[in-house]
Amino acid sequence: MTGRQLGRIALTLVLVVLGLIMLAPLIWLISESLTKESDAFDLPPNWIPHPFTWANFRGITDLIPFWRMALNSLIVAVISTAGSILVSLLAAYGFSRLRFAGRERIFSLLLVALMVPVQMTIIPIFILMRNLGLVDHLAALWLPALINVFSIFFFRQYFNTIPRDLDEAATLDGAGHGWILFRMLVPLSGPAIAAMTILSFEAAWNNYFGPLIFLSDPQKMTLPIGLVTLQAGQGGSSVVVFAAITAVVVPVLVVFLVFQRAFVASVASAGLRG
Amino acid sequence: MTATVAPVRPSRDIDGTPRAGGRSQWLAGSIFVGPALLLFVIFVLGPFIAAIVLSLFSWDMLTPATFSGLKNFKAMLSDDLLYKALGNTFVFALASVVTHLIGGLLLALGVDALRSRAASYFVRTSLFFPFVISWAAVALLWKYVLDPTFGMGTYYLTKIGFNPPDWFTDPSWALPAIIGIDWWHTIGFTFVIMLAGLQTVPGQLIEAARVDGCGWWQRLWHVIIPMMSPTIFFAAVITFIGAFQIFDPVQIITPNGGPENSTLTIVMYLYQKGFQAFQVGYASSVAILVFVIMAIVTALQFWFARRWVHQS
To answer: Coil, helix or strand for B303?
Structure first.
């Protein structure tokens, strides 16, 4: 065996061990959530629960309205994602294909907004929502999420790579703007739309700051806050908290494994194009 | 802005030039761009201006606001807690950038050199897994992992001969612990960006350097890093901006700013002032400070970028 081969084996070993260390907290989380309460927190840790139990999961709904919160999270994530993708596609078409007075100036103004942190606008938005009577409504979470400057920018970049000759040919055939956008550009932009869908959905699903500020009614609450209120210990044991975290984390991991390629591509392309 | 030269082709971009058919373009423009622009004005531009106006007032959201001029900004100058929060935030952001760039680059180089497909898939997936999990779940999980009595992490750290402190009650260890947790959660993002950047470096170039007798270190330093500088630069900007706005993990793990305010970050301070103490005007001036710092850092980074980023 040459030194180079040995080096390669060593590198593989080091990286695989590192991968295992990265996964260790998640594996521990899942095992603990399946361990019966009296055995939980044994040291050294029980990596394989013995005996298996689902009891901890049954305890979650006694402490928080888990399913209601999951539904709320889903509603917010679906509306913000679908809405912001539609708004962004329309705007990107305008900025990429139409010529109207002030187009470039409006676009630059939008780009400057990429630098405005959410925290700066949150107080005025809170006051606005209060005046609209939307505090403690899910709309307070998804309405502001409909404007996503990054995805407008991203779609415009993508549209700009699609030859305009195609539009002209379609126009000559009598196609209008709506047809060109939804029947031609959108089908050609699959990867870009997938990337932005994944990123927006993830951001809305995991949002903690928004619900913390706008919501207080447990029936209106989303999952991230639900989890954190569990921690405050409302008579529930730690294993139930473990089960709740597992119930939130495992579906996300499964979805990620299924869409891994698109997910990683979305981050990579955001990095390369941004 | 004068349309003296007729466009060669109707589809050519000419900024804002009213042309024949301009009215229909304007109508279409307002239909397509209108919704985004309206939302932008309501939820970004309007609140942005409102935050600047609010910073000139004293207001508790209940009694009428009173104009106070620059009083809030003057008060900021002698607010020790604000300096503390700023200091913590800078430490967190700088530590984040350094550990992410070095870690992300090394991991990308390592995974890129793997020959086994299975190992490569496993390492990529396990590095990226934590990134898809919400901060709420990550923060709670790590609170348990590092728990002094039953934490799995504490147990193994003790096993390898390290005597871990009680992380979140020890003022000198709370912030480093959160820096570490942030690394675990977010390194997958930096890693993927670095890996994508690495793949844009032409293989022949690295091969040519190898043939010329350059060792691994020389190839890294003289070929790979210069070629990847746009990616590294982008990752630095994104990491810094994200880290500077850190809120979720510190708020969840150390709700009141941690022992001796050692984990109080600037956004957490803004949240306390605005939504717990109801000092809306003061919180708005803190928000403006955050914006100004981010704008300056971004401008500086672009200025540096012109001097050292390799342009292909």
So the answer is: helix
Q: Where are the domains of chain B?
A: 30-71, 80-308
Query: pTM score, two decimals?
Result: 0.88
Q: What are phi and psi of A173, to 5 degrees?
A: -80, 0
Asked if the Cβ–Cβ distance from A257 to B247 is below 8 Å, we say no
| Nearest chain A alpha carbon to B62 | A127
For chain B, say whether A6 makes contact (Cβ under 8 Å): no
Contact A267, B189 (CB under 8 A): yes
A20–B contact, CB cutoff 8 A: yes
What SS3 class is residue B296? helix
Decide if B298 and A41 are in contact by the 8 Å CB cutoff: no
Type of residue at A6: L
Asked if A28 and A47 touch (Cβ cutoff 8 Å), the reply is yes
Question: ipTM, 2 decimals?
Answer: 0.89
Gap between the Cα atoms of A110 and A30, Å rounded: 43
pLDDT digits (tens, 9 = 90+) for B76-112: 999 999 999 999 999 999 999 999 999 999 999 999 9
Contact A119, B67 (CB under 8 A): no
Per CATH, the number for B80-308 is 1.10.3720.10
